[in-house]
Write a structure and sequence with these properties.
Layout (H helix, E strand, L loop, with lengths): L1 H11 L3 H10 L7 H4 L12 H11 L4 E2 L2 H8 L13 E2 L4 H14 L3 E4 L16 E4 L6 E5 L4 E5 L4 H9 L17 H7 L6 H4 L2 H4 E7 L5 E4 L13 H4 L8 E8 L6 E9 L2 H15 L3 E8 H11 L10 E9 L2 H18 L4 E5 L2 H12 L1 H4 L5 E8 L8 H9 L5 E7 L4 E8 L4 H7 L2 H8 L24 H14 L16
Bound molecules: flavin-adenine dinucleotide, D-malate and zinc ion.
Catalytic activity: (R)-malate + A = oxaloacetate + AH2
Family: Belongs to the FAD-binding oxidoreductase/transferase type 4 family.
Subcellular location: Peroxisome
Length: about 500
């Protein structure tokens, strides 16, 4: 058991400070998802020793894990909310192997759960019952980089940070960046349509991903792996796999457009009096920084204070009700510096910025980004966190935080809000000493009803996964859900791909 917990910790983290804290939190494994959420197993086949023999004949002995302690890390999600009961993990190394495995599983009606870096936040990446985990961790080859067009072609299991390091050496960057970059896979990013810290500037993955190769439930390989910017030949099938969370096919390769590495990068971290001023500052940043604005993030006092304290991270400025992080990516240091100075001078005079720091030194920028990116991890320390990632029109962006504080009273340790203002996406986290059904039912469906009243989306970037299918109707109408069901039926008639996820039972 100790060995398995240790390997779990190793799997989810690379930062030493954080590692110790998650080790502590992981002493208690979450309750089985099927019991916690009262789910009934669907009528799939059950894995037998003859199946394991078959998988071993395809993949070899070492790439089929069946020891309980080896399989455990693949059964538990990052926030320790969900726990599945898989008995086997398969680690293919090629598209052909994925295809062979899926064809067999489909014929035997064995359900599967595709898994990338297992950093997903909605329980989509881990099984619920005994679904076979298909891990992409060994499909991590970079296939091609065209440094003129910026098209990178790689296998689905490449870790985002490794790709970023690779393309940076060649004058490019990955078009997405997120706190989980050291662990998440590009195939997982594609399958969740991950947003992240610079979507404001580089757009979402439906735009950046040029092509995908994916395998359907019956083993058919769908080759849409084009690297062209423009390709209007019929239906845009790649979009079916982007954001479908492993329910329509397994992504095996990705072609993605990498923007040019910015020559000049600046980062500002500011204290702001109230949320109204955060919005005014955003408006000003858009107009004064224009094309060089690459991120506009906000965090309230509790987000930053809680993170700094729990993870012992430095906050470079003193306490303020709200914090704003403004980043610029440009090609001309002097020009960018002048623009930023003008923005800063104006907004310090206007009082929108109360205090702050601006830097272009990589180490200092890293300290600030680290504080922002660690908010997710801080929520795990010493308790349980209910996480929401909603889109709300900007004028109401922060409304739900005070509403939830009032509703929960002392039942919550903290309720805090932070997120990607530029994308209208707020993360609301509610921390509690431990998961209870009482708090859960005070939050859900209440929060989704409120989001829906505000014309928002119940998931801006993390997806629906296992945690939200029964709430999807708050953001998708019946006709859209009907079409989703038809597509699922067409592409995966036996329903073996990531069951219990995304689609609600009754449509
Ligand atoms: P997993 O967690 O392994 O899987 C996610 C989903 O995709 C599952 O449904 C899984 O079945 C499916 N899947 C994985 N690989 C494949 C494949 N090859 N083919 C088909 N289906 C597949 N998300 C954001 O959008 N923005 C953020 O800013 C952000 N920040 C985060 C910060 C932290 C610290 C953490 C822990 C998570 C964050 N996330 C964020 C959520 C998460 O990292 C992303 O959803 C990420 O894209 C998941 O990638 P992964 O490889 O870990 O996928
Ligand atoms: C973030 O923006 O930090 C991520 O989406 C993770 C989170 O919601 O905490
Ligand atoms: Zn986010």
């Amino acid at each position: 058991m100790i060995k398995s917990l240790a390997s779990f910790v190793k799997l989810v983290n690379k930062n030493n400070v954080f590692l110790e804290q998650v080790r502590y939190a992981s002493q208690a494994l979450p309750q089985l998802s099927s019991e916690k959420y009262n789910i009934h197993r669907k009528d799939f086949g059950r894995i037998e020793s003859s199946d394991v023999d078959y998988f071993r004949s395809v993949l070899g002995q070492d790439r089929v894990l069946t020891e309980e302690s080896d399989v455990l890390p693949y059964n538990v999600d990052w926030i320790k909310n969900c726990r599945g009961q898989s008995k086997a993990v398969l680690k293919p190394k090629s598209t052909e192997e994925v295809s062979t495995i899926l064809k067999y599983c489909n014929e035997r009606k064995l359900a599967v759960c595709p898994q990338g870096g297992n950093t997903g936040l909605v329980g989509g990446s881990v099984p619920v019952f005994d679904e076979i985990v298909i891990s992409f961790s060994l499909m991590n080859k970079i296939i091609d980089l065209d440094d003129l067009s910026g098209a990178l072609v790689c296998e689905a299991g490449c870790v985002l940070e490794n790709l970023d390091n690779y393309v940076r050496e060649r004058g490019l960057i990955m078009p997405l960046d997120l706190g989980a970059k050291g662990t998440c896979h590009i195939g997982g990013n594609a399958s969740t349509n991950a947003g992240g810290l610079r979507l404001l500037r580089y757009g979402n993955l439906h735009g950046s991903i040029l092509g995908v190769e994916a395998v359907k439930a019956d083993g058919t390989v769908i080759d849409c792996l084009r690297s062209l910017k423009k390709d209007n030949t019929g239906y845009h099938l790649k979009h079916l796999f982007i954001g479908s969370e492993g329910t329509l096919g397994l992504v095996t390769k990705v072609a993605i457009h990498c923007p040019v590495l910015p020559k000049s990068v600046n980062l500002g971290f500011f204290g702001v009096k109230n949320f109204e001023n955060v919005l005014k500052l955003y408006k000003s940043a858009k107009s004064k920084l224009g094309e060089i604005l690459s991120a506009f993030e906000m965090a309230d006092f509790d987000s930053i204070n809680f993170t700094a304290k729990n993870l012992k991270l430095p906050n470079p400025i003193s306490d303020y009700p709200f914090y704003v992080l403004v980043e610029t990516h440009g090609s001309e240091e002097t020009h960018d510096g002048e623009k930023l100075t003008r923005f800063l001078t104006n907004e310090m005079e206007s009082g929108l910025i109360l205090d702050g720091t601006v830097t272009s030194e990589p180490a200092k920028m890293q300290t600030i980004w680290n504080l922002r990116e660690s908010i997710a991890a801080a929520g795990l320390v010493g308790g349980y966190v209910f996480k929401y990632d909603v889109s709300i029109p900007l004028k109401n962006y922060y409304d739900l935080v005070p509403i939830l504080k009032k509703r929960l009273g002392d039942k919550a340790t903290k309720v805090f809000g932070y997120g990607h203002v530029g994308d209208g996406n707020i993360h609301i986290n509610v921390t509690v000493p431990q998961y209870t059904k009482e708090v859960s039912s005070m939050l859900e469906p209440f929060i989704f009803e409120e989001v829906s009243k505000l014309n928002g989306s119940i998931s801006a970037e993390h997806g629906i996964g296992f945690r939200k299918p029964k709430y999807i109707h708050y953001s998708k109408d019946q006709s859209a859900l009907g079409l989703m069901k038809d597509l699922k039926q067409l592409m995966d008639p036996n329903g073996i791909l990531n069951p219990y996820k995304v689609l609600p039972d009754h449509i």
